[in-house]
Structures are given as C-alpha cells and as structure tokens.
Amino acid sequence: MKNKTWKFTLICSLIVMGFTACDDDDEYYYVGGGSSWLSYGNLEKIDNGSRSKFAIRRDDGNRLIVTEGMPIRFDGAKEDLRVYAHYSIVGSERDESGLEGNMNYYVRLYGLDDVLTKVPVKQSFIHENEGVRQDSIGNDPINVQEAWFGGRYLNVEFRIPVKDGSKEKHFINLVQDDVVAHHDTVYVTLRHNAYGEKPGTGNDRGNFSWGRGRVSFDLTSIVPEGQTSVPVKLIWTEYGKNASETVRREDSGTYTLKNARKTGKDRGLNQDKSKMVSTEGVGECVVE
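RE: above sequence
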C-alpha cells in the first residue's frame, strides 16, 4: 500500500457498466450473458504462467485469478497494490490454500484501476502547526456517495464540483480526532481542499460539473492495542441543493481488523457493498 498521508493523485474515468451477484456456495459454475462485477481488492503474487504475475484478493477474502482478458503485468504492479477491478466470472473453486473457506474465482478481466490509498491524519499532528496544516487540510464540502468498511480499509466514493476543462488538483484527507475523548468511539472527519476551485454565486456557477473519485483509508492504526475492533463515526460536510448551502452528515459502524471475526450489524459503514449494482455515467476529475 502507498502510505501517502498528505498527497495523492486520482484520475476518475467514464464508467458505464453493470454487474450481478454470484452464489458462493457453488463449487463450479459459468456466468454468461455479459454480467460483470466491480470490486475493490489488493494485488497478490501468483504463479500463473505468462498470463498474469498477480491475482486480486478481494476485500471479502476471495481471490480473483485472471484467465482471460487483460493480464496483470503492467509497470507499477506490485504486492498489496490497491486496485478497482472490472471483470466477469467464468468459473470458481474452493481455495484450498487456507482455512477461511474462501473461493478462487477465475475471471475475464476488462479493466483495472489503481486506487490510491492513505492513512488517517491525526488531529494532534495538525495542532503542532495549526495555522499551516489546518489551512492545507481544507474545509471545502465533499459529497459522499458511498462509504463502507472493506478488508482493512474505509472505502469512500465521493463527488466534488470541478470547473469544466480544469486540471486543478484537489486535496482529500481523513482526520482522526485523537485530541478530544469520545468514550470508546473513534471520530474521523473527511476533509477537502478545493484550492479555490468551487462554484460560487457569480457568472461562473454554470461552468462546474460533478466529478467522481474514490479513495481507501487504511484504518489499522486506529484500533487500540489488544483490541480487534472499534466503533467509528465518520463525519463530513457536503453541498446542499445549491453551492451556497452546506449540510453536515455522519455515518457510523464497527471497524474490525481484517483477520478478526466480523462484528456489528449490516448497516451504516458495515453494509456489504460487494454486490451493489451500478449502471452510471461518471465524469472525470483530478484530486490531490
């Protein structure tokens, strides 16, 4: 994983695709009809001959092994790289390499994006140089489309207004409040610095469109020593019905270390997003 605490670059591209759920209880099956999936995961080295140097370990623990389509052997591919994959399943079998009961899915890979990852920035770190760091982190609104725990991450898919034709880089971070005590709950705030590129009430307000981005935050560090899980509250401020309105939002769930038993109900940040159907047009944005 790339621990870029302060800066990352993310290019969002046009996606119009659909996907469907598959039954994990089947020992072997074939999926046809053009059905496809979109999943988050991490690259994992595999001996798959010349086809691919890596498999993809999904957040649910199942593994994607490429047998058709685009091979995974591009420059920059490395162990544990966070990726977002578009694929269809052509077959499956039980993964006999572990005791977790996971599956090996043999897939036709259509596309693979690098998901840039970060770790939370502590509030105490910002306070060490309040004037500079608070301003750099930013206080601009950010509209969260989806946020959920997957593997060791908090995954966030968001929208921000960007000026048409602009390549201005925005700045996204997750700030962990380690200054004020909140009982057993960890408070984290999604922060955005638009560097002045935000819609106003002047003549340029019609020159903005929504750009979509995604980021995964590794939350391993927020779990206290000796524990395997911790309640989390996510806070953010988003645009309302127009650029002059802002709304404070929050969501919550129980974050559990990757290899520990899952806790908490299937709601809030603990919702299972692995089978969420998506058919959507997405604009392009650049985020720093």
